[in-house]
Specification:
Number of strands of chain B: 11
Distance between the termini of chain A: 41 Å
Structural class of chain B: mainly beta
Radius of gyration of chain A: 14 Å
Order of helices and strands of chain A: EEEEEEEEEEEE
Number of strands of chain A: 12
Strand content of chain B: over 45%
Number of helices of chain A: 0
Structural class of chain A: mainly beta
Radius of gyration of chain B: 13 Å
Strand content of chain A: over 45%
Number of helices of chain B: 0
Largest sheet of chain A: 6 strands, mixed
Shape of chain A: globular
Oligomer: heterodimer
Helix content of chain A: under 10%
Largest interface: A-B, 29 and 26 residues
Chain lengths: 116, 115
């Protein structure tokens, strides 16, 4: 079975500072990895995903993540955050399941709080 | 990208009543819809998978008689929480797979509060 661990439930940071949100996963097979963002009162929006190839993945809004197979990690980073980045961030791993479609296994989420 | 519209976004109901949550795929046909639930400070957990024209598949520990799922058309899937109790208070969100296995489109979510 697959699982995802997000060790930090909340990360406070000042505007324009860099940030890293940590994600570790466990799986016995090759995986697809995702980061989603949830703004208040909104659904989940895909930030970026790793499928194969380059381990450094660039996403929307200036975010990037690096897949590290040996450490089973997929940490999310941004060199300079904005107030508008305040949101909940979810790391997820795919499970194709019996339907052949994607079922996602999520971490518990990390709340990024950006202050002036 | 494709849009999944979920309603209502928030609902408060009395204990013992039923609540229906709808998810519509607005510009594509969704033969499958995943329903997730998120309790406070916990991750999104898959509850069930609905398939158009057939019975839903429930994850272990989810009561199928309590959480009724209907996927009557290619653009509409509904989740009905029957005889709701305060412990059913949670955030419910649906997701439809995209055209490739690595895509998923999420609804806006429904925050259910049972009083």
């Amino acid at each position: 079975a697959q699982s995802v661990t997000q060790l930090d439930s909340q990360v406070p940071v000042f505007e324009e500072a860099p940030v890293e949100l940590r994600c570790n996963y466990s799986s016995s097979v090759s995986v697809y990895l995702f980061w989603y963002v949830q703004y208040p009162n909104q659904g989940l929006q895909l930030l970026l995903k790793y499928l194969s190839g380059s381990t450094l993945v660039k996403g929307i809004n200036g975010f990037e993540a690096e897949f590290n197979k040996s450490q089973t990690s997929f940490h999310l980073r941004k060199p300079s955050v904005h107030i508008s980045d305040t949101a909940e961030y979810f790391c997820a791993v795919s499970d194709l399941g019996n339907t052949g479609f994607q079922k996602l296994v999520f971490g518990t989420g990390t709340r990024l709080l950006v202050s002036p | 990208g494709a849009v999944v519209s979920q309603h209502p976004s928030r609902v408060i109901c009395k204990s013992g009543t039923s609540v229906k949550i709808e998810c519509r795929s607005l510009d594509f046909q969704a033969t499958t819809m995943f329903w997730y639930r998120q309790f406070p400070k916990q991750s999104l957990m898959l509850m069930a998978t609905s398939n158009e024209g057939s019975k839903a598949t429930y994850e272990q520990g989810v009561e199928k008689d309590k959480f009724l799922i209907n996927h009557a058309s290619l653009t509409l899937s509904t989740l009905t929480v029957t005889s709701a109790h305060p412990e059913d208070s949670s955030f419910y969100i649906c997701s439809a797979p995209g055209w490739v296995p690595t895509e998923a489109f999420f609804g806006q979510g429904t925050r259910l509060t049972v009083v």
